[in-house]
Design goal:
D-Amino Acid Oxidase, Chain A, domain 2; FAD/NAD-bd_sf; EC 1.4.3.19; FAD/NAD(P)-binding domain; 12 helices; binds flavin-adenine dinucleotide; 374 residues; binds glycine
Length: 374
Amino acid sequence: MNSIYDAIIVGGGVIGGSIAFQLAKRGKKVLLLEKDRLASKASGAAAGMLGAQAELDADNPLFTLASRSRGMFPALSKELKDISGIDIELVNKGMFKVALTDDQVAELKKMIKVQQDAGLEAEWLSTAEIRKTEPLLSDEIKGGMFIPGDGQVSATRLSLAFTKSAAALGVDIKEFVHVFDLRTENGYVKGVSTNIGEFSSENVIVASGAWSAFLLEKSGINLDTYPIKGECFSVLTDRPLLEKTIFSHGCYLVPKVGGRIIVGATVKANTFDQKVSMEGISTLIEKATQLLPAIKETEWEKTWAGIRPQTGDGLPYFGEHPAYKGLFIATGHFRNGILLSPITGVLIADIVEGKTNPEWSAFRLERSIQTQFS
Ligand code: FAD
Ligand code: GLY
């Protein structure tokens, strides 16, 4: 078996899916390979928050990228629905980032000032003002930041909408195909070797999330990345308990369609173990109850865990490898891969077409590998 493609993407999460969709829109013949089921890893575990302002500091290079990506969701939601029929459940009601201590109050007020100075909408609300929208929030809350622009989607639906739309535009998608190695010749990528044979392409994009470094290692490429596990649980309720997403230190509550509330998430570095721990879930239950006492009345649904892809300096890698022409890497989205997926697809499709944008130089691959190749 030896088909020739314009590009091969390794990884069927939200990042691989978004890249496949953008390349297909540009008329490329693409193959996407996923070793398990589509969206079965971090992308299927995510809470789906589009927390550009809640989760990132304004001086982080990711902030501009994330704000730009967040702005792509309304049009993308319609485009994906039209092509795939999948509703990504985009909710644009804003988010409350709440404080439980005086230090958190000071921190949030500083954050609001920085964001307002940058021209973004964010305001401080007292507990009484927040309670007008969220009457069931605990009286332990000392006010919070209202962020009208931060929304949320269904992470799994978004990931599957990307891949289904990509398939509708001609992308070949194969699940349960494990890419064992990259095929290279004299510094050029030639394709991949898998459990079902070899596939050829002069462009291979590694979008394998937390597992990207394993694949690259086999070709002698070291990528400064590490896994960070996150656990969540969900509950069901007939009576709506929340209107908007509530974000706090170490815990968030995301109201979803059908009376579901997702509660997340733990943060444990350097493990690929996806087991859910009693310790992780009991900590989340405690924090969630402190924020929203009425959550105790809900029906238990389920728990799960996912592995976030993190990098040494906390910024994702987007680029072509200087030692292997045609080898592209798109990973390291850590806690914001759902939010960053629309812009990542466009950016990587641009790079594959030879269009690099200096605006995004903070994410270039060379920062990880300069010591190996300088
Ligand atoms: P993945 O989804 O892990 O996909 C990589 C895929 O590559 C996997 O399916 C894997 O099986 C496949 N693969 C790996 N190696 C190979 C190989 N050799 N051959 C073939 N296939 C391979 N982000 C947000 O923006 N908002 C949130 O609210 C949010 N909440 C989160 C909550 C939790 C609990 C977790 C864990 C993450 C959360 N994130 C959130 C982060 C987000 O989920 C990730 O940043 C994002 O999913 C990363 O996408 P990915 O496609 O790079 O990785
Ligand atoms: N962005 C939420 C999380 O990673 O848990």
